[in-house]
Write a structure and sequence with these properties.
Helices cover 26% and strands 26% of the residues. The protein contains eleven helices and 21 strands. The strands form four sheets. Strands 1, 4, 5, 6, 7, 8, 9, 10, 11, 12, 13, 14 and 15 form a 13-stranded mixed β-sheet that branches. A four-stranded mixed β-sheet has the order 20-19-18-21, with no helix packed on it. The chain is globular and about 70 Å long.
């Protein structure tokens, strides 16, 4: 694993690596990490000093790699990079550093973040996606419909077909694209016309499309699987997809700067970290690793981004660490992704809660088709909701009592019936937003 591979050979390597014992897997990770850190300390201005504790005598060229010093390396935040992005650009002339693509984040959590991503990262992401299909015993043939934000904008390029195959199989079908910001009725008509085998889109959009399918029983769409990405996957969406399309969901946790980070286990539904491509640490407020069952911030290191290395990068996402998986794969486990700090509520007295944990899935308990809860003050909330499709009225008192029971008894809750829930950057939907933590 010391030299990067591509295509089917890389896929075969990853399928074998996830079945290694703990010591062998960790040794492979350390080889990749050492290679990356030596290069970054030599050719990236920011890391020239900050990574020197990892090498004997502070010498990244000749000094022994000191893995035990890893926890002494301070995590890097997006704010750190925004101060001087060029300090994170590599001056290396090796191919892994010179072949890259430039992109940016949506800016939903602040200023858009422009970054470089080595071509190797995209190749690794494609390989991890292929591995996920192997985990679910899917054959990777047929067309893939991909409904997402297309950077050309919502009015142009909303239907791009035939650009590339989407996996390594010689029988791979066409990768179709459609703009997610177009009305869902247009998306549904397009999906029926394309008739794909696989559908990739946001969980909130999967919910909308499944409702279109339910209202159109003779639609003829036969999906072998749905792939959910870019948002937290609520349980009701999984249940809805299985009932409407009789198809499994592959849940993907990714970061735009990294690509795929974790994919769901077909046996448990928990997320397996692709730790042979991206190393993940879950750290508490003191910067210490959490134990299984505890929540902390996701800190990530991409083994293959030599153009702009992200080493101990504090992502701003929070997750619950899992234990070993009964499926037998050595890959680390995340029980669930909780969101960002703006998705947690700070209540009276300073108590912090994650509403996604405390409140569960309200659409399963009350007649609402969708909702969003916004915190404006410690004890003041707005409950935005869409009415039930069957016209059943929402009992405000019952919902308020449930929320107060799970969060705090002193909450004041204003109910606002909406025609639509407004998404954030890149058309992503957030169920819980605290204006105190934004």
């Amino acid at each position: 694993m010391s030299e990067p591979l591509t295509g089917p050979a890389f896929l075969d390597l990853l399928l074998r690596s996830e079945r290694l014992d703990v010591e062998a897997f960790r040794a492979n990770q350390l080889r990749l990490l050492e290679r990356l850190c030596r290069d970054a300390a030599s050719f990236v201005d920011h890391y020239n000093q900050s990574l020197r504790p990892l090498f004997a005598n502070g010498n990244p060229h000749m000094g022994e790699f000191l893995a035990a010093a890893w926890q002494d390396i301070a995590p890097v935040s997006k704010a750190d990079i925004l101060k001087n992005p060029k300090a994170f650009h590599s001056r290396s002339r090796r191919r892994e550093a010179t072949e890259f693509a430039e992109s940016h984040t949506s800016g939903s959590s602040g200023e858009p973040f422009y970054y470089r991503k080595s071509i190797l990262v995209n190749q690794a992401t494609t390989t991890v996606a292929n591995r996920a299909f192997d985990h679910f015993d899917l054959d990777r043939s047929g067309d893939l419909a991909d409904i997402r934000v297309l950077l050309a904008g919502p009015e142009t390029g909303q239907d791009r077909n035939g650009e590339k195959t989407w996996n390594f199989s010689p029988d791979s079908g066409t990768h179709h694209f459609f703009e997610i910001r177009r009305p869902v009725e247009e998306q549904w008509r397009w999906l029926k016309a394309v008739a794909p085998k696989y559908l990739l889109t946001y969980p909130s959009n999967l919910r909308r499309l499944a409702r279109c399918a339910r209202a159109d029983p003779d639609h003829g769409v036969q999906l072998a699987a749905c792939i959910a990405s870019a948002e937290i996957l609520p349980p009701d969406v999984e249940d809805l997809i299985r009932s409407v399309f009789d198809a499994p969901i592959i849940n993907i946790y990714g970061l735009r700067e990294f690509g795929h980070v974790a994919t769901s286990c077909p046996q448990t539904g928990d997320l397996h970290v692709s730790a042979d491509v991206t190393m993940i640490e879950i750290l508490d407020e003191a910067g210490k690793p959490v134990e299984p069952g505890e929540i902390g911030e996701v800190v990530a290191t991409s083994f293959y981004n030599y153009a702009m290395p992200f080493i101990r990068y504090a992502t701003g996402d929070f997750a619950e660490l899992g234990g070993s998986c009964p499926c037998g794969r050595i890959l680390p486990v995340l029980k669930r992704i909780l969101g960002r700090r703006r998705n947690q509520f700070t209540l009276t007295g300073g108590r912090i809660v994650w509403p996604i944990v405390e409140l569960g899935e309200l659409t399963e308990l009350f007649p609402i088709s969708d909702y969003q809860i916004i915190q404006s003050e410690a004890a003041r909330f707005e409950f935005h909701y869409l009415g039930a499709t069957d016209g059943e009225m929402l009992d405000h008192d019952a919902v308020a009592a449930y929320i107060r029971q799970r969060l705090a008894s002193d909450l004041h809750i204003d109910f606002v019936l909406q025609e639509a829930i407004i998404p954030s950057g890149y058309a992503k939907q957030e169920r819980y937003i605290s204006r105190l933590n934004s």
